[in-house]
Amino acid sequence: MTPTFVRRNLDFFCAVIAVGLLAGVAGLTTSAVLRFVEHLTYHYTFGTLLAGITGSSPVRRALGPMIGAVVAAVGWWLLRRRTKVPELAQTVARGERVPRLTWSVDALLQVVLVGSGASLGREGAPRQFAAALGDVALGWLRRLPASDRQILLACAAGAGLGAVYAVPLAGALFSVRIVLKTWRLRALGTALITSSLAVAVGSLITKDRPVLNWPNLGLAPVLTGHALLLAPVALAVGLAFDRLMAAARPARQLRTWVLVPALAAAGLVMGVLSHWWPELPGNGRSILTVSLASGMTLSGAALLLVLKPLLTALFLRAGGAGGMLTPSLATGAAAGSLMALVIDWALGTHLHLPTVSLAGAAGVLAVTQGSPLWAAVFVWELAEPPLWLFQIFLVTAVGAHLLKVVASVRDTPPPTPYPRTR
């Protein structure tokens, strides 16, 4: 081995360790700020966001999301009028310069908006902040080639996701399958190390416990058949969710003062609706919590299935920024719960609501993100149910994804034949 080869790999190993630790710091920071904003908005001290919303006063419940949205909107107006906020995946894929300060400020504003009740995912903020901190570390190692820097930035984003949700394997798979779209051993090994380190650092807040509480109930493997039945439902819900978000997302990033009244109105709508459906505010964890507790009613599941994506689209249209993972996850959980409740009502059966709910979440996530393996792993790690239930989530996710592939092939027009020449 040449000295150059040894030095390059030693630099890379040091960068991997630094990126993993910094991604954990990013996860810790964004989680702490999110909790502070949630507690400030709904004036509670302990418990989940759902408990805080339920116990807050009607005025605070209505006006809290609006005030938080105004604060975030003013921040984005000041930020976007001076610079553009590029998307993380495109920046990494193209090897473009990382806007460290811009991404950090944007991540903070995302946390403020989601923490005050906006129907957007909180996973975008730690991904951006982790990538920005990782790029600072990579700035000290200028000898690294562009391909290694791309891997490290992608792994920083996935590790940030893993840190806030305590999902080390899903964080690693997010890096290699969603961002990099590869199975290269160098990328996979880097992703596993950085995500594990980030989750270890993030455990100072997550306490190394699953985000969701799985109920200890008896189950039967016959549920595998229901997973196959759920795949078409997950496909329909996932495609509808994607199309709604694509239609709602502005063609250009909103940069004018219109951001302030638009997001304020969206926050007020969310606040008013939370009087009847306190599960709606936030990234979607409340819907998942109620689903796992078997607390869904038939009408409630149907309304949440419609309202959650509509409110997410409303905040996107108003100029808000945030993740799409957990809103689509919550929408899938509502769809799974609705399907189980309809079957129970029609046939007199007793399906296991938490399992069908999470299977629906995995199926919709597989459709919206294009990676069934990652979707199944992410959903399983969120609750850590019995290991054999992973096959239920995987069957639904793979089934929905394959149906999407088949549908896309059918919708593709045949190639136009070239005109014959004489």
UniProtKB/TrEMBL annotation:
The keyword Signal does not apply. Keywords: Chloride, Chloride channel, Ion channel, Ion transport, Membrane, Transmembrane, Transmembrane helix, Transport. It is a multi-pass membrane protein. Coiled coil: none annotated. Its main location: membrane. The keyword Cell division does not apply. SUPFAM superfamilies: Clc chloride channel. Pfam families: Voltage_CLC (PF00654). The chain crosses the membrane at residues 12-34, 62-79, 151-175, 225-245, 257-277, 297-316, 328-347, 359-380, 387-407. It is found in: Membrane. InterPro entries: Cl-channel_core, ClC, ClC-type_chloride_channel. This is Chloride channel protein.
